[in-house]
């Protein structure tokens, strides 16, 4: 991943975090020393989702809520950048 791509991923997570905060979620941007940044979103009901940014014919966000462990195969869910905040809030049970 190039430094430009890293910066773009970071910018998308910051924007998403701001939007999620206006929707009532508690958000924390985690910047590990090794690896990619993660946006932790905790809804008003206490559900936690860890969101990362990926490239899929455009930028998209993907997350795996705690209850995804119960799904067969532990499926991940994703939303395109333009509607991510609303989709994530609906999925984490705000």
Briefly note the structural class of the backbone.
Answer: alpha+beta
Spatial extent as radius of gyration:
13 Å
Portion of residues within helices = 25-40%
Order of helices and strands: HEEEEEH
Total of DSSP H or I helical runs spanning 4+ residues = 2
What characterizes the major β-sheet?
5 strands, antiparallel
Distance between the termini: 33 Å
Spatial sequence of strands, sheet with the most strands: 1-2-3-4-5
Unreliable parts: none
Q: Let me know the number of strands.
A: 5
Q: What does the average pLDDT come to?
A: 79
Task: Label the overall shape.
Answer: globular
Strand composition percent: 25-35%
Summarize the structure in words.
The structure is a single chain. By secondary structure, the chain is α+β, with helices and mostly antiparallel strands. It is built from two helices and five strands; from the N terminus they run αβββββα. Strands 1-2-3-4-5 form a five-stranded antiparallel beta sheet, covered by helices on one side. A hairpin with a 5-residue loop joins strand 2 and strand 3. Helix 1 crosses helix 2. The longest helix has 20 residues. It starts with a helix and ends with a helix. The model has no long low-confidence stretch (mean pLDDT 79).
């Amino acid at each position: 991943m190039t430094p430009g791509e890293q910066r773009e991923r970071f910018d998308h997570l910051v924007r998403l975090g701001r939007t999620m905060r206006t929707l009532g979620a508690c958000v924390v941007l985690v910047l590990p020393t090794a690896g990619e940044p993660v946006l932790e979103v905790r809804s008003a009901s206490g559900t936690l989702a860890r969101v990362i940014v990926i490239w899929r014919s455009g930028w998209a966000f993907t997350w795996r809520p705690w209850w995804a462990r119960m799904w067969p195969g532990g499926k991940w869910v994703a939303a395109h950048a333009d509607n991510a905040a609303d989709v994530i809030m609906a999925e984490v049970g705000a």
